[in-house]
## 1
Amino acid sequence: MGIKDRLIEDVGLREGVKRLTEDKIEQVVQTVLKGETGARLAAYSEICMRCGLCSEACHFYLSHDGDPSYSPVGKVQQTMAVLLKKKGRVSPDFIYGMAQIAYTECNLCRRCVHFCPVGIDTGYIMSTVRRICHKLGVTPQYIQDTAHSHSATFNQMWVKEDEWTDSLQWQEDEAREEFPGLRIPLDKEGADIYYSVIAPEPKFRTQLIYQAAAIMNAAGADWTMPSEPGWDNSDMCMFTGDFEMMGRLKRKHFESAQKLKVKRIVMGECGHAFRSVYDMGNRWVAWKMYPVPVIHSIEFFWELMKQGKIKLAKKYPGPVTVHDPCNVVRGRGHHEKLRELVRFLVDGPIIETASNREHNICCTAGGGVINCGPPFKNVRLDGSKAKAEELRATGVKTIVAPCHNCHGGLEDTVHRYKLDMHIKFLGDIIYECMEKPS
Amino acid sequence: MHEIYNLVTGPLAWLAWGIFIVGSIYRLAIMYILAKKKDAPSLAYMSWGFSLRSIINWLIPFNALGWRRNPLMTVATFAFHICLVVAPIFLLAHVALWDQFFGITYPVLDEKVTDIMTMIVVAACLIFAARRIFQKEVRYVSGFQDWLILVIAVLPFATGLLAYYQLGNYQVMIVLHILSGEIMLAAIPFTRLSHMLFSVFTRSYMGSEFGGVRRVKDW
């Protein structure tokens, strides 16, 4: 029982550990432990009573019939606890397993926080393990590729500068057929809203930009998108443990907004990018809070609804269930606004999953896990069994999930467990149901 | 026997209390200095309101999700901690000692009550031990330290019961009882029992982060 019995070949991990020696590992681990961690990690590791209460929080544990090596504390036991006990003197093979646990068997969803009486944050411990893996150069290849893209282009998907503006103009062009007079204003100084997206949107989910433009247009919003790098709010470096790059990304994003003197940033329906701006990225660059106000699409759409700026031609046929993305719900308390909005948009009730709101079970794609790519896809889907069962029990056909990662993950889950459900962004529903020029 | 009794109630008692108090202050001070030096990005979010909110909500049985999903553990751990703290402080024999040595008196609990409380502590320890043996997710992560503190915690209560009921040699039992109590006190700052010192801060931080940054409850 344990990671040794389930190792998966990944070229990024394999090539990474080939370059390691015990001396090198010890030195890197000590650098991180002494340089970057302090009382928080020390207290967590000392006072964890090994009571095992956190086990039932974790969807990996639940989905693997109670295999203790998948429980939060079980994963800490196989990673950080060993590093601390051996003061970082471990073998390269150990690092391989440790990386696989930290990157692919923990979504950093923090559900276990609701189970730990003494207040241990396993997500923080796993992030620190990833940080060490990053500094050792042992990261899964697929997610590392996105991190490289961030370093080279300031976006996650190797989108070139001209491709970016081209995509926006293309969407503007398309949309003007349906909404004459629609604009996607680029670099408009002093706009009320700076709309930021993640790079997969221009890359392969361009319809989301189209829909956002349609909603902004209908609401008569004073908005803009930047033509230069900084437009991508996503942050895979946060998940690989490349915190230096995470800091650069946050600076770039906010500086881009500041340059345009906008009043605030509205973020697309992304979960992890939101985590990066209010939780991790800002801390790395020593901002207690972000320097330009940022709101998530849930909140933005909710505001539009309250101001009567979303005019519906019809309601979306329900019933539906709501998936609460960790990073915007457990991460930012947007669950009630999300439900108010869904009730406004949908004709029919919301059938809740057994675990909902801040106690929600993760989609199993978050925390960079889906970004680790095909080698780990089956493992990820094995881990989403608990989620699939909760979804199946609702008996509905539509899942509303306001997060890109959750979408990707849930689509796979629906397919694997034959759930016969489809997944909608809020933007999908608003666009589908809003009043349009005839 | 008399000399040993004098030793455990005299110098060793002073030593145990000394290690407990000085050791605890030392550990807390060192941890605070470390937090100041290395954990600024966490300390910045500490808030009294959210800390208390979190502590209070976790002190209500079956309130937090974790408690609700583990009813046996909830009952055992609440009963254990309450009895562990209350019984020794308000036990007639202990208050008599305070009076004898320092002339301090305060109200006591009925002996029947403290008797049951002591049994509850021992019973809870048996439940904890059973979990470590039979529940695989607990067994998987249990190590020497976990068993050590369980033994340290149960001994003063088990020997106390034996002494109270005069089972076995009373003289030996009372010495063992006092000695094991002293070991427990002295062990608090330097074993996992230090959760007594630190968990209020880790709980507070989690409450502050969930309340202030995440705007959700952490229970």
## 2
Amino acid sequence: MKGQCVDQQVENEEIEISLLLEAIYLKYGYDFRGYARAHIKRRIMHQMALADLSNLSELQHKILYDRGFFYKILPDFSINVTEMFRDPSFYMTLRREVIPILKKYPAIKIWHAGCSTGEEVYSMAILLQEEGVTDNVQIYATDFNEAVLAQAQQGIYPISSIKEYTYNYQRAGGSGSFADYYTSQIDSVKIDASLKKNIVFADHNLVTDGVFGEMNMIICRNVLIYFTRKLQNQVIGLFVDSLCPRGFLGLGSKETIRFCEHAHKFESIAEEEKIYRKLIK
Amino acid sequence: MKTMSYEAVVIGASAGGVEALSKLLPLLHPRLPMPIIVVQHMSTRSDHYLTQYLDRICQLSVKEADEKEIISPGFIYFAPSNYHLLIEMDRTFSLAVDERVSFSRPSIDVLFETAADVYGRSLIGMILTGANSDGSRGIHKIKQYGGLAVVQDPLEAEIDKMPKSAIQSTEVDYILSLDKIGEFLNQFI
């Protein structure tokens, strides 16, 4: 392609992506307009190729007129790649620095925002159980993607990932045998039902839904990296309003609140692990 | 070559890459006017050791790319291990933990394809040693968008599969040894 053609193609693609995201928002209420553009563009182009469509306007037409098609591709717009005890040092730090403080509270409320297929939610449940926090604790695990939420609720994972999870568990300071927390099926494992008793799974969209009240800790890992700075500010604002005074916030290892307009409302508990604590106003 | 100016250089390397980059990157002049952005396939459990080591031996500053960081000349940026590195239209980085692409995260294709959108014909893409074919789609898109494709000489590369695959995927502009790649880049000062 000649230079000018390329410039025009990239420019037109940008316009078509903006229109497509607007169309999805107007039609279905899912708002991806504040997502980091390069990423959402890759996902959209991928779906366009899979559907064997030749341009974005065709894709927009299909999304508007074929509701079934939209709901079929929707899960691909969120990222559902996660693991148990992902970044073990994060969980080690929770175990050592945060849980001892939370234990002193009469009741604990924890919100896993953007929980995806639930691996990190069960990691938290294991951690709490091992630290003796079994009563008066409620974990709210939310995601906007109902399909992954259903998977999270089932707690069934491929057996091929268990080796990695066991390694992570041990490095996260696991005090028992990881095999005690699941039962093996043919090619999958099922998380032990006892770990589910304090977990409530619920549909919640961080972009368009409101405050989730009075949490002692919010865990939201590798979600904010997909948002523009503006949307990051909005969502961290939502977390500020959802946390009780001195509540904790745990982010992904490449995420930070340092450049966010709410940064001054937090102190850093473990900068390397991205664990923050809300200051008293 | 001097008549054309380039805004950025993207480099992809896999097996044998740490050694190749340790040889190539220290050659680069501190006043090189364009940023260098690198994907080196690594074990998912690796730490910051590579960037710290390279920062000590390079004349340019070497660091891991942060999400939303503004891309500037004077720096060699590395994709963090276990994250895809993407370039946004406003010339900042974004990170993603999406599925592996061609069994890799970070993926060279993901970096190259998003870079081609942003920099178009003012982009140089380079494929070095490696034992897979990641980067071939990316270098093809860079060429398609008018950018420049440079590949490490397969005869010199520790593992020649990735350079060969890149050469097959598109009409590359230069096939060079690491020394020559260093000289080639330094001419843009």
